Amino acid sequence: RNPTWLRLSPAENALFVQALSSYSSTVSSAALLEKAVDMIHSHTNMLVEQLSEGSHSADTQARAIRALINAQWSTGDESFRNEALHQWRLMQRKWNANFALVDLSADSGQTRYEYTTTEIGDLVGAFSALIYGAAMDELQAQFAAFFQEAVKRSRLMNSGLDQSGGAFDNDEVPGPDDAGGPFGTAPVFTGK
Asked: 96 in helix, strand or coil?
C-alpha cells in the first residue's frame, strides 16, 4: 500500500485499472500478463474498498463501472461485475428520467447537469461497458435518451453522419455538409 499522500482517488484508481486492463490485452509474455492481472486484481479490490467508503459523484461511479467491467473481463472475477452492477444501481438514483440526464453532484444538495467532455466520456463509457461488456441490452434506450440530451441537443456534437446527425435522423445535429463552411464541419465535439 502507498502512503496516504500517494493513494489514488477512486476516479484515478478506476482510470489506472482501465489502463492496466488495456495493457494486459496487448501483452504476449505470460510472465508479464500474470503480473498485470495481479495488479488489476489488487487495484480493483482497492477500488471496491474505496467505493464502499462513502458516496461518490456519478462521474466517479461511471469511471468505476467501466473499470470494474474491464477488470472482470481481464481477470474472470465475477465479483467485479457484481460491484459494477451495484454501482450502476446507486448511480441510477441520480438519473433524472424527465431530462434523460444524470445528476453529477456528490450529494451536496445541488443538482448538476452541466457536463465536461471528460464527464460525458465517463458516462458514455459506463453505458458502453454495461451494454456491451455486461450484456445489458436493456440499457440501450436509456443510453440513447442520454446521448440525445447530453451530446446532441446540447450541441456538444457539431455534426454527425448517418444515424447520429443531419437529415438522416432529423435531430438537432446537422450533417457535415450542412454544418458550415465551404467543406462542412467534421463530426467532432466542441468544448463544455
From this structure: strand
**Structure pTM?**
0.82
pLDDT of residue 148: 84
| Nearest in space to 150 (alpha carbons), one of 56, 58, 69 | 58
Given this model, what pLDDT does residue 11 score? Answer: 94
Question: Is the pLDDT reported for residue 192 higher than 50?
Answer: no
- Do the beta carbons of residue 104 and residue 44 sit within 8 Å? no
CB of 129 closer than 8 Å to CB of 65: yes
Q: Under DSSP, is residue 45 helix (H, G, I), strand (E, B) or coil? A: helix
Alpha carbon distance 134, 18 (integer Å): 15
Indicate the pLDDT class of residue 149, thresholds 50, 70 and 90: confident
Which residue, 165, 161, 159, 157, is CA-closest to 190?
A: 157
Cα-to-chain-centroid distance, residue 88: 11
Contacts of 67 (CB under 8 A, 6+ apart): 13, 14, 15, 17, 18, 21, 44, 47
Angle between helices 58-75 and 117-128 (to 10 degrees): 40
Instruction: Identify the residue whose cell numbers are 465535439.
Output: 189
* CB 137, CB 144: distance < 8 Å: no
H helix or E strand, kind and range, residue 66: helix 58-75
- Using alpha carbons only, give the angle 66, 87, 117 rounded to the nearest 5 degrees: 50
